[in-house]
């Protein structure tokens, strides 16, 4: 009886494996040269959305997400390695840093080097912070 139960479980597992393989073939594609468009949010300029892809006569839509804090002009599909922020320019009141392309996702057209700026901080950060409640009186 135990041997019969083991054989039934083994057969059910093998059948489940076949179904997964068949399902993957049905959903998948033999096409290898997919061209993907940008992630288009469902509403506004960030959040959940979709990305359309084409390959020969086939087309697909994939779910994607643009983070809502992502306001950079070079897009969420271009990943860059950024250097440290440069010094504050007294003339413009901004500081700059550059980024070198690390990875382009979904065949995105990305610039090799990008420059970003931000306003200089008007606050002066102090190096030593006051300790509350733990100092000697």
UniProtKB/TrEMBL annotation:
Check the record and name the InterPro entries matching this protein: Midkine_heparin-bd_GF, PTN/MK_C_dom, PTN/MK_C_dom_sf, PTN/MK_diS_sf, PTN/MK_N_dom, PTN/MK_N_dom_sf, PTN_MK_heparin-bd_GF_CS
The keyword Signal belongs to this UniProt entry's keyword annotation: yes
GO MF terms here are:
growth factor activity; heparin binding
Keywords carried by this UniProt record: Developmental protein, Disulfide bond, Growth factor, Heparin-binding, Mitogen, Secreted, Signal
GO terms under biological process: positive regulation of cell division
Q: Name one GO cellular component term.
A: extracellular region
Give compartment(s). Answer: Secreted
Q: What family does the database annotate? A: Belongs to the pleiotrophin family.
This chain belongs to which protein, by name? Midkine
At the highest ranks, the source species' classification is: Eukaryota, Metazoa, Chordata, Craniata, Vertebrata
- Per UniProt, what is the name of the gene that codes for the protein in this document? Rihb
């Amino acid at each position: 009886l135990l041997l019969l139960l083991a054989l039934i479980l083994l057969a059910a597992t093998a059948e489940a494996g076949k179904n997964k393989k068949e399902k993957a073939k049905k959903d998948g594609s033999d096409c290898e040269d997919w061209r993907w468009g940008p992630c288009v949010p469902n509403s506004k300029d960030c959040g959940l959305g979709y990305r359309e892809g084409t390959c020969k006569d086939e087309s697909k839509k994939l779910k994607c997400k643009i983070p809502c804090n992502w306001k950079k002009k070079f897009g969420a599909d271009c990943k860059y390695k950024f250097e440290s922020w440069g010094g504050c320019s007294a003339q413009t009141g901004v500081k700059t840093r550059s980024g070198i392309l690390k990875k382009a996702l979904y065949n995105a057209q990305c610039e090799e080097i990008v420059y970003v700026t931000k306003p200089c901080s008007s606050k002066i950060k102090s190096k030593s912070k006051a300790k509350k409640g733990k100092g000697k009186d």
